[in-house]
Design a protein that fits this description.
This protein is mainly alpha-helical and 228 residues long. It contains eleven helices and no strands. The chain has helices at residues 5-15, 18-42, 45-52, 56-62, 66-93, 105-122, 124-135, 142-151, 153-169, 179-198, 207-225. Residues 21-81 form the HTH tetR-type domain.
């Protein structure tokens, strides 16, 4: 069996020199813009190389797996940035050592919803990639989808599940025996309608409408999960 893009990328991380790493990041940065605009299937290696100001030969020298490896690098890199920002915002609101007071729970969850929503504007290039990943899932290599989930959605989902469990332990929520499902419901209720309406932030809603939808999502979540 041949070497996968994932194993090639991991091997390259251990072999790359600082100068080569700088070149790879420059190529990946340019590729992020191209992939965000064109998507995975439509972006050609020629266009990716041209955007980075390198030849296709140079691109393959740095990314032997070609477009798939480059896309995986970009998705993993941007997902890691967004993941770290999400975790920081989560812990700022639902701190492991100081759960909200019952009277502040709705206010704090609205603050968390706003913080998560703000990521779409702060990391617009990443969410452009996510939009294309969802639209082209049948064309994106499985190893790229796996790398994306492992870099971003999975660790954030675990952290949010742990936060929900802490809120239940504090007597603020009743999760009906499945904290992961409750965490998924929270994410869906605060984001799904906005994602649909804005196409992952491409067409932003007026701020009052965004705030109304975020508050409505939190309110629906608490109607289902607030502790009696």
């Amino acid at each position: 069996m041949g070497e996968t893009n994932e194993s090639r990328l991991e091997r390259a991380r251990h072999e790359v020199s600082p100068r080569k790493l700088q070149k790879q990041m420059a190529i990946a940065s340019a590729a992020c813009t191209v992939f965000g605009r064109e998507g995975y299937a439509r972006a050609s290696v020629d266009a990716l190389a041209a955007a980075a100001g390198v030849s296709t030969r140079t691109l393959y020298n740095h990314f032997p797996g070609g477009k798939a490896q480059l896309f995986q690098t970009v998705v993993t890199w941007t997902s890691s940035e967004v993941r770290d920002a999400q975790l920081a915002r989560l812990h700022a609101v639902v701190h492991p050592e100081r759960p909200p007071h019952p009277d502040d729970l709705e206010r704090d969850l609205v603050s968390l919803a706003r913080a998560f929503h703000g990521l779409m504007a702060d990391y617009a290039n990443h969410f452009a990639l996510v939009r294309h990943i969802h639209a082209e899932a049948d064309h994106v290599p499985p190893e790229v989808l796996k790398a994306w989930h492992e870099a971003g959605p999975e660790p954030v989902g675990r952290a949010l599940t742990e936060a929900m469990t802490r809120l239940e332990d504090a007597g603020l929520l009743h999760l009906h025996g499945d904290a992961a499902v409750a965490a998924g419901h929270f994410t869906a209720l605060i984001s799904h309608r906005i994602i649909q309406a804005t196409h992952y932030g491409v067409l932003p809603l007026p701020e009052p409408e965004t705030d109304r939808l975020l508050r409505a999502g939190v309110s629906a979540f608490l109607r289902a999960y607030r502790a009696p």
